[in-house]
Amino acid sequence: MIGIGKVGSTASFLIAMDGLAGELLLWNRTGSVARAEAVDIQQASAFIPRRVTVRAGEAEDTAGSDILVMCASVPKPRDMADRSQLASGNAALIRELLPRFTARSPEATIVNVTKPLDAMTGRIQEVSGLPWQRVIGTGTLVDSTRFRNLLSQRVGIHPLDLKACVVGEHGETQFAA
User: N or C terminus: which one in the chain shows less Cβ crowding within 10 Å?
Assistant: First the structure.
């Protein structure tokens, strides 16, 4: 997990609790943030029926990773009108960070969460040189989960029993289906 802010820490927790990885390494520019989050998730894993190892580390420690999840971002401006304001800063961040990880895991698939999502997913493919099939953007997944949750509260049905999603480009042009 590259970038342990709100999204990176939440995704890390869900991956560990759902048993989607046997080992999860958290990386953040501020190492103490990754270490604290790794300890919390590792301790919470005592309540799940499968073993998972969660730890913080450096880029070198990610060598041989099957999947790299890009959650890193520049700080969000207080007066941000839309996600496109993050584009130039996050593009520079991707150019700076990504080679450290892809050089150590050249066979990895990259899952992107960094905003603006579609533009940064394209930038990741460009910077990494990976085939498009190995660079995946989460698209409107988070928006779809929010939509399903709101619908479930409104109609009194569990979110897993709803088939509803948000489609289009993540941002102003997306719509509920």
Answer: C
Tell me how many degrees the CA angle 10-16-20 measures, rounded to the nearest 5: 110
Q: What 3-state class would DSSP assign to 112?
A: strand
Q: Where are the domains of the chain?
A: 6-138, 142-176
pLDDT, tens digit, 9 for 90 and up, residues 23-37: 999 999 999 999 999
Q: What angle do CA 35, 38, 41 make, to 5 degrees?
A: 150
Superfamily of domain 6-138: NAD(P)-binding Rossmann-like Domain (3.40.50.720)
Catalytic residue positions, numbered? 170
Residues 6+ apart with CB under 8 A from 149: 159
Collapsing DSSP to helix, strand or coil, 67 comes out as strand
The residues, ordered by sequence, that sit 6+ positions from 55 with a Cβ below 8 Å of its Cβ are 23, 24, 25, 26, 38, 42, 61
